[in-house]
Amino acid sequence: MVTRVSFVAGDTGGWEIEAIGAIRGAPLSRATRLARHEGPEFHSGPCVWSIDGVRSNDRYVTRDEKQRLAANQPALDRRDARLGALIPILKSDEWWALPQDERRAIFEERSRHIAVGLDYIPAIARRLYHCRDLGSAWDFLTWFEFAVHDRPAFDDLVGKLRDTEEWQYVAREVDIRVHRVA
Amino acid sequence: MVTRVSFVAGDTGGWEIEAIGAIRGAPLSRATRLARHEGPEFHSGPCVWSIDGVRSNDRYVTRDEKQRLAANQPALDRRDARLGALIPILKSDEWWALPQDERRAIFEERSRHIAVGLDYIPAIARRLYHCRDLGSAWDFLTWFEFAVHDRPAFDDLVGKLRDTEEWQYVAREVDIRVHRVA
Description:
2 copies of one chain form a homodimer. Chain A is of the alpha+beta class. In chain A, 24% of the residues lie in helices and 36% in strands. In chain A, strand 2 and strand 3 form a beta hairpin. The interface between A and B is medium-sized, with 26 and 26 residues.
């Protein structure tokens, strides 16, 4: 069975929201706390906003890339990873109309999404959730965890990705920065 | 917004069920009629069984394959297409653990899934729905429509696909044959 996640913004949750930056398109409303609920069911309850996703299969990685990621990717919930970021992204209809080979070429051969990400592990822990098939307002949610001293590296990573050809197909992006309180 | 489908088996619906064949794994219960509800929401109501899916982006096709499919693929609801088939499929965990390049190689370079399918259009109309990310018991639903005189061709098509390397990763498959009553 698929593993589900709900990111719930409101006044409870283990992460205090520092900033909600609208990178492209409509923003998300201000809230003080963020909770990440991962399990067999979506989480529902009172909130300012909530976004659901699922852990699913890889869509672009090759065997070699998958192995390099698996060998170096840190786990979530590291004791010293006091900072987090949730970045929901919606890509354009134009992106989704592209065939698989052209999406892959833009994603990696030309934008080096995986290669750039590999430069920042093991410092930056990352988990990708899919939501496009759920009929969500978003296509993906990426959750990151890192230490305070790796904040400049994280800013550098997202800055590099936002400069790529792939990001020309991003229709909406919000960058939610948090720190751990629990 | 995503387009949703619900295939509902019971005693109403525009398709009379002729046979429900369990090709691999657990069967589905017998019912007399099948309805295909496609729209912005899933359909709920009394039924013997119901399976939901969504229309989503292509996962394997190249630009060239996509164009050849688009140029030749017939629409659904052709007047002379009196027969239909619904084939829900679940692939194995082993399949989903493969990286994208290896799934593509098995799917097309070695099993020729797209090339074989192209040999049977424009006779066989086909629509693929995804359900893996919905937490379904199935990964895909494929719906076919064809004329009575193309039934041998359709049997030939599914027979060829079931002989491929790709099909070694099919964990469950049911083949529901119907004819149009409405």
